[in-house]
Structures are given as C-alpha cells and as structure tokens.
Amino acid sequence: MRRLADERGLFKMTAVDQRPGVEALVRSRRGAAAALFEDVGQAKRVLIETLSPWSTAMLLDPGYAYPFAALQTDPRRGLLMTYEQWDCEETPGGRKTFGYPDWSVEKIKRMGADGVKLMLWWRPDASEDVKAHQRELVKQVGRDCRRHDIAFLLEPLLYPLGSEGNSALYQEDATKRPEMVIDTALEFRDECYGVDIFKMESPIAANAVPHPDAPESADCQQWFDKLGQALDRPWVMLSAGAAMEPFRRIVAHACRAGASGYLAGRAIWWPTFESTFPDWDAMRAGVVRDGIPYAQTLHALLEESGTPWTACRAFSQGIELADAEADFYKRYPAS
User: Fold this and answer.
1) Which residues, at least 6 apart from 34, have a Cβ–Cβ distance to it below 8 Å?
2) Residue 15 in contact with residue 44, Cβ under 8 Å?
3) How far are the Cα atoms of 62, 255, 261 from residue 305, in angstroms, in the given order?
4) Least CB-packed of 140, 212, 247, 286 within 10 Å?
5) Which domains does the chain have, with CATH numbers?
6) For residue 261, what are the CA distances in angstroms to 18, 126, 179, 301?
7) Closest among 139, 56, 68 to 105, alpha carbons compared
8) Helix (H) or strand (E) holding 157
9) What is the pTM of this model?
10) CA separation (Å) from 112 to 70, 80, 293?
11) What are the backbone angles phi and psi of residue 262, rounded to the nearest 5°?
12) Strand, coil or helix: what is 271?
C-alpha cells in the first residue's frame, strides 16, 4: 500500500493496461487483421517511460505492457498488475468476468508487483447465477492476495444489461443510476472479499458532473458523499474514458468526499495516443505537452483536499504490522 502512494499517502496512479480500444486503433491505422504485439507494446512503452516519473504507481497488463516494457517502469514507483482478461461471457442475466488463462496472484507476486487489480463487471440487478459467479471470483482473488501478502484493488464497473452493451468497447453507462454505484460499494466492502483499495466510477455520469463550485453542484456532491460514507477503506476514482475536464470535476468532487486519489489512463493520454499513433516521437512530445500538466492538475486537487489512505476509517485505531512480536519470524507463514 505504501509503495502505491506518495509520501503523504495519496494515490496518483496511471493505467496503461487498456486493451480492446488500443488494439482497435492499431488495427484501423495499420490496416491489419489483428493488433500487432510490437505496435501495442511500443505505444505502452512510450506511455510508461513518459508518465512513470509523474505517477506513484503504474498499472500494467501481462499481455502487452509488462512483457514489452517491464524494464521501462521506474523501480522507485509502485507496480500494479491486471488479473482479468477483458473478454467476458455475455449471458441474458449479465456478464461473467474471468482471469487471464494460466495467470494468478502467485505469478503477480513473484514478478515483484505491489498490487493486483481486478476489473469486475457488476450489476446489482443481474441474475443470481451471474452475481454468484462474480462474487466467488472476488473472494478467490481476495483469498489469494491475503495468502501472498499483496494489495488487492477492485474495480467494479456497471454496464448495460442485455444486447445494449459491448464489453470490447467499454464506455461509461450514461443511463446508470447513482444508487447502483452506492449499492456496489456496499456489496464489496464486506470483509469476506478482502478488498484493500476500491477503484470506483462516478455515481453521476461524467458529462453531467458540474463544476464543484457551481451553484448546482450540491446535489451531485451528495452522491459522492454517500459513496465516501459507504466505504471505510481507501478508494480512488477511475476515468472510464471521461475527457480531461469532466474527469477533473469528478476528482474534485471525490476528494471532497474522502477519496485518496485516482487510477486513470485514458483521461491522461488517450487524446495524444489517438492523434499521434504511430509517430512515437510525436506521441512522447504530446504526453509531455498535455498529459503531464493535466496529471499535475489532478495532483494539486489531491494535495488540497484528498484523504491519505492511512486516515481512512478502517485505520482509525492506527496501523500495525500483524504478529509484530519477538517470534514474528516463526509466526509469519511461508505460503
């Protein structure tokens, strides 16, 4: 947890684990039937090299980012690894999430990561068999993270039920109800899931979030406050493809409600990636020109009103090392 945050305990984390959207853009520009490993990998390498110094942690996927650019990650920063494959099982009752084949928390720990990220398709109104599958997946990852002493970050995402949605081209569900985001937080805060950090979406559709100081912002802030009240442990905001200004407003509202930071990717680098691929020099220059100043804007919001993770309600009695006695070396399990 400490390696994922800055010295004050604020999370300023950058995601480069995006897959379907990046693959689709590469295919369209190259005219290829399938995204090339080298193209997707090189794009992520540029992003990692450029944004890592401005992030407290980087989120990488095991299919492109890590094998192509592991050595470009800054060893002074935290490392999060993706657990889930993006493809899911679409059923009439909702989506079922699965991990990458032959991938595990044990492997993520062995490669030296500090945390495991699980993106979970979730609808409180999905069918019972779908919800049972999703719950068991979260519990399994939580158990494995506890066994291997690694932080567990859960990213539950709402989606349209039925044929309306397309998991490969994820965009925020603009028809979502804020109660559904709150209900999702209440579901997975239970200790049986073992979640350490929540990566939450805005309870209000991104483009409908007003400026935090606007007269009409009070109603919106109430929903962010309810989200903060529902979670007693650290939570950060995801961008869900929101543009720069809407996401800045979301982070401002979230910080006022007790959020400890953000874990975002597309809001920071997608406009540059989309406009410059495959000109690597132009991509790097664009991220320096636009992405880094934007990240600094988010950092200023966090430093003004964000809540350090160590100050969350779950740690109101302080933080202590488990079994911190003279025989710690005996009591600490080997596996």
Assistant:
1) 23, 27
2) no
3) 34, 6, 10
4) 140
5) 2-331 (3.20.20.70)
6) 19, 29, 22, 9
7) 139
8) strand 151-157
9) 0.96
10) 11, 10, 30
11) -145, 160
12) helix
Q: What Rg, from alpha-carbon coordinates, does the chain have?
A: 19
Q: Round to whole Å and give the CA distance between 242 and 250.
A: 9
Torsion of CA 96, 99, 101, 106, to 10 degrees: -150
Contact assessment for residue 202 and residue 241, using Cβ atoms and an 8 Å cutoff: no
Q: Are 216 and 260 in contact (CB under 8 A)?
A: no
Give the Cα separation of 128 and 123 in Å (integer): 10
- CA–CA separation, 184 vs 195, rounded Å? 13
Give the Å distances, CA to CA, from 211 to 60, 168, 247, 251, 258. Answer: 31, 31, 11, 11, 18
For 17, 200, 214, the CA distances from 284, given in Å and listed in that order, are 18, 29, 35
**Which are the contacts of 330, defined by CB distance < 8 A and separation ≥ 6?**
none
pLDDT in tens, 142-157: 999 999 999 999 999 9
The amino acid that residue 155 corresponds to is E
Which pairs from 299-303 meet CB under 8 Å and 24+ separation? 299/12, 301/248, 301/251, 301/252, 301/255, 302/10, 302/12, 302/251, 302/255, 302/261, 302/262, 303/8, 303/10
Distance, in Å, from the CA atom of 97 to the CA atom of 122, rounded to the nearest integer, reads: 9
pLDDT per residue as tens digits for the range 105-125: 999 999 999 999 999 999 999
Residue in this structure with the two tokens 């989200």, named with its chain if needed: 227
Cα dist from 57 to 76, 80, 284, whole Å: 9, 7, 19
Rounded-to-integer distance, Cα 164 and Cα 110, Å: 39
> Position of tokens 């299919």?
63
User: Is the peptide bond prior to 278 cis by the omega test (within 30 degrees of 0)?
Assistant: yes
Stretches where the chain sits below pLDDT 70 are 163-170
Look up residue 240 and give its two tokens: 């869900």
Closest CA to 37 of 49, 55, 19, 58: 19
**What is residue 240's predicted lDDT score, i.e. its pLDDT?**
86
